[in-house]
């Protein structure tokens, strides 16, 4: 069980992240997409899935958004009504979208026993509910919920305090953390160093990996705040097949981060994102999921793991 692995601090948790369909999708489209994804998930060997609750994030930067923001259906609704899967789901909630009454109702009828609360992407973003208040409501309304938070290694590069934020959110009730997509191993390494040295309760940190299928997607990832070092950007831009190169790169990065964290005594896992509707990119994410699972099993067989 995913919840038990999290609460036992198990290393090597493997997740697969997906985005719900567009809110404008017809009933037939929702059923078709749900069936297609149910079949894919049935073939996935992972501990659980992540279903995102998207927010615009345009208030975070003055740069023009690379792709237009598209509203999606409720992630819990997608899970319960259209995804016929026995995989446990971590349901994201962008808490600023909801007022207190709405949020209480969501928690009372939670479709899953696992969730991640996401705060505003910027101080300039209009916010109905702040993250601190969402934590308070969770303790009152859904104390059973296994709650996760967001970890952003890029912030650690600038302020060197992401490990302190993780410790603070752990004290607020977070039992695991999922990062945004990682393309800068140095940031991840620095965060692991400081987190390992911190005298606090340690929880699993699940690093996210996202194959990049085009130069425009690479531009969008940078718009989202994902750090891509110049030498890696050049490697991707000059590759014959950027999708294949990025998939191989993601596997390399996870292998390093996983071994490094094990040596530091920090439990880490992986979340492979599939956020594209293009079949070739979906297939690349599934291939990456299999490759990362092989890496985890390899290290378990060698006897290097954290409990």
Automatic annotation (TrEMBL):
GO terms for biological process: methionine metabolic process; tetrahydrofolate interconversion. Its cofactor is FAD. It holds the Pfam family MTHFR. Pathway: One-carbon metabolism; tetrahydrofolate interconversion. Belongs to the methylenetetrahydrofolate reductase family. The keyword Hydrolase does not apply. InterPro entries: FAD-linked_oxidoreductase-like (IPR029041), Mehydrof_redctse-like (IPR003171). Keywords: FAD, Flavoprotein, Oxidoreductase. GO terms for molecular function: methylenetetrahydrofolate reductase [NAD(P)H] activity. This is Methylenetetrahydrofolate reductase.
């Amino acid at each position: 069980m995913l919840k038990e692995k999290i609460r036992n601090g198990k290393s090597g948790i493997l997740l697969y992240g997906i985005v719900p369909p567009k809110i404008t999708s017809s009933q037939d489209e929702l059923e078709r997409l749900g069936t297609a994804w149910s079949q894919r998930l049935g073939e996935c060997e992972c501990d659980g899935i992540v279903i995102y609750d998207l927010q615009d994030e345009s208030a975070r930067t003055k740069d023009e958004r690379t792709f237009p923001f598209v509203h999606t259906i409720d992630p819990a609704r997608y899970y319960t009504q259209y995804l016929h899967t026995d995989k446990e789901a971590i349901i994201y909630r962008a808490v600023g979208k909801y007022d207190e009454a709405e949020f209480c109702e969501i928690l009372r009828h939670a479709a899953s026993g696992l969730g991640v609360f996401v705060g505003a992407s910027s101080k300039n973003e209009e916010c109905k509910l702040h993250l601190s208040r969402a934590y308070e409501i969770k303790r009152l309304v859904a104390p059973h919920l296994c709650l996760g938070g967001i970890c952003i290694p890029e912030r650690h590069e600038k302020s060197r305090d992401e490990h302190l934020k993780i410790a603070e959110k752990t004290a607020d009730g977070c039992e695991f953390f999922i990062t945004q997509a990682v393309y800068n191993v140095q940031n991840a390494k620095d965060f692991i160093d400081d987190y390992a040295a911190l005298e606090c309760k340690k929880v699993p940190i699940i690093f996210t990996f996202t194959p990049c299928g085009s130069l425009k997607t690479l531009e969008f990832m940078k718009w989202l705040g994902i750090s891509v070092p110049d030498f890696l950007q050049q490697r991707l831009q000059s590759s014959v097949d950027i999708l294949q190169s990025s998939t191989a790169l993601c596997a390399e990065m996870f292998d390093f981060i996983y071994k490094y964290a094990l040596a530091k005594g920090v439990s880490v896992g992986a979340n492979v994102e599939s956020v594209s509707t293009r079949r070739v990119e979906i297939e690349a994410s599934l291939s990456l999921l299999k490759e990362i699972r092989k890496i985890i099993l390899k290290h378990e067989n060698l006897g290097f793991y954290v409990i």
